[in-house]
Every structure is written in structure tokens, then in C-alpha cells.
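When time allows, look over one protein, given below as sequence and C-alpha cells. The question is which stretches look regular and which look disordered:
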Amino acid sequence: MGQPDATARRLPPGEPQSHSSALPRVPALDRSVLGSCPVTGVAELDVLVEEIADLRPLPPIAAQVLQIAEGDTFSAHELAQAISSDPALTARVLRVANSAYYGFPRRITTIRDAVVLLGFRQVRSTLLATSAIRSMPSYDDIDGAAFWRYSITVGLLAQLLARHEGVPQDEAFTAGVLHNVGRLALVQARPEAFRRATELATGRGISLHEAERYVFGFTDAEVGGALARHWRFPEGLAEAIADHALAPSEFDDQRSLAALVARARAFAAAHGITDGVERPLPPPAPTPPSISAFAATMVAMSPADLPEPAECGSAQRLAIAVEPALDQLLAEQGGFEHVLDRAAAFVEHTAASP
């Protein structure tokens, strides 16, 4: 049996908490609350990743598509050929392409049509998302539909942020969709221990990532990042998965994939949208006029300089004010509810047989 992470820090009750991916500053904990659940350490992470990769290997077509990029080496034609070689995958991609997710007026009947009409990047990101959903189904402690609706929502929000920042939107969407795969992996490989972590987070009022650090010695974000590197994901995508638990203000580059995902997660959480495992935040309080006046400059400010609105106990609640451009983009898309509807449509048409 592995040993607890010797570097884990314990602080007196009431000391401020950290929500970064570094070792958490959490209150002293009586480990008896963990019962008979094995407590592991960082040393087991590599073993766990190998075990998960064997249980749920990345579909070969997804691995192939990850290597397909625009340029002289690969083409849209090759992408269409790769997808068409798998009849079930072809059916799923076409079903999503013809769903309310895209709302395209003309019926798309072939993968070639999808690539031409929707674009190489859109089809590529759709394929990766559908492959992830199909290869990582739900488990006893997770509502699969809710989990993936959340993941697609984060992907769509990250995509909108990427549009505003002038960076590739398909990469942001893919990173948003896949950022939480480590959580599903833990549920599959260590269901009892993960259940203990969720109970601990609820009972002690700490974040799930902090509870995972106690129980496992590492977080699901770190598991996901290690899996992504094992599957040879592009480094930017692997970093976004590994660092998604960081607060948006902790990123030097707000245009990086990891920052876009963190910002999208914070925005979703501020609206009470979670993966069904984390506790949702209460509805946001009305934004005081004083915050709206300097909202556009908030991201560049130090976290210590951010004002604390009345009855707002979480920095994530400020996400609405921090992302005024996202509010505008959402308005152009038909509002946040429209994004949620699109995410539900994507999952519904992906999860259906075949």
C-alpha cells in the first residue's frame, strides 16, 4: 500500500485555503474520517495512469486524428478518409453535425460534406469530443449525461473566449471538453477512494481537489494531465488538462489554452453549472455598478486588489464581471441558455447508438 504524501501541509482551522494545483493549504484533518479507504501517494500516479490507459485506451481513430493537422502533410481529405473508415464513428459525427448543436440548415450526408461545410477544425474537434464521450462512459458515482453536458459547456465557453482572444477556437473547445477526463478515470479505477474524497470535501467544506490530495496524494487534474501525456496529446492540451484547477488569475498568459479553460470553468461555476460531482455555487448576487466600471481591467489586477462584492464569498463569483467580452459573445449566441441547449444536444446525439 502506498504511503500518504509526506509533503502534504496541514494548517490550523480557519487559515486561508489555496485553490491552486500546488499542495493545498487545508485545515488539519483527522484521517480517521477516511475509514478503511487506502491512502496513496504521488508515487502511485504513474502506476494508476498505466492501469487506466489499459482499461480505457484512447481509440485508435482519435490518436490518428490528433496527429492530423492543417498543412502540407495532412489534408481535409485525409481527415474525411480517417473518419469514414469507422462506420460507427461516421454515424456519430454526422448525427452531431445534423443536430441542434450546429443548427446547419442543409442536411449533411457525408463526412466530406461535413468537412467542407463545417470546416476541418470543427469536424476534428467534434470527432475528438465524441471519441472521449464514447470511450469514457458514466460510472456509478457520476451522472454521465450531466458530466459531459458540463464538459461540452466549458468547451463552448472556452471557444468563445478563444474567439475574443484571437487564438484557435477548435483547440480551446477540445481542451474544455477533455479537461475533466482525470475525474472519470479516478472514478473508474478507484471508485471507493473517490467516493471517500467526495464525502470528505462535502463534510469538511473543502474543494474536491483538496480532498483528493488527502486521499490519493494527487488530484484528478494531475491524473488527467498524466493520461494526456501518456496518450501523446499536444503539450498545450495536456497542460490545459493538468492545470484546469488553477484560478484564472494564476495564469501569466490569459490567452493560453489552460487559462481559457480555467476562465470558462470559473464562468460556468459562477452560474451554478458543474459536472454533477462538485457542489454548485449559489446564484450570483447582482453585480454592483462599481464593479462594472472597471470590469475590463480586472484580469490584469492582482488577486489582492480585486474587490469583494457584498454577500460574495468566492473569487469565482467574480467571473461574471471579469469576462464582459464573454457576456457580449453569449448575447450574440442567444444567451447562456442557448449554450447549455447546444451542449445537451451534442451529448444526446453522441451518446445515442451506435
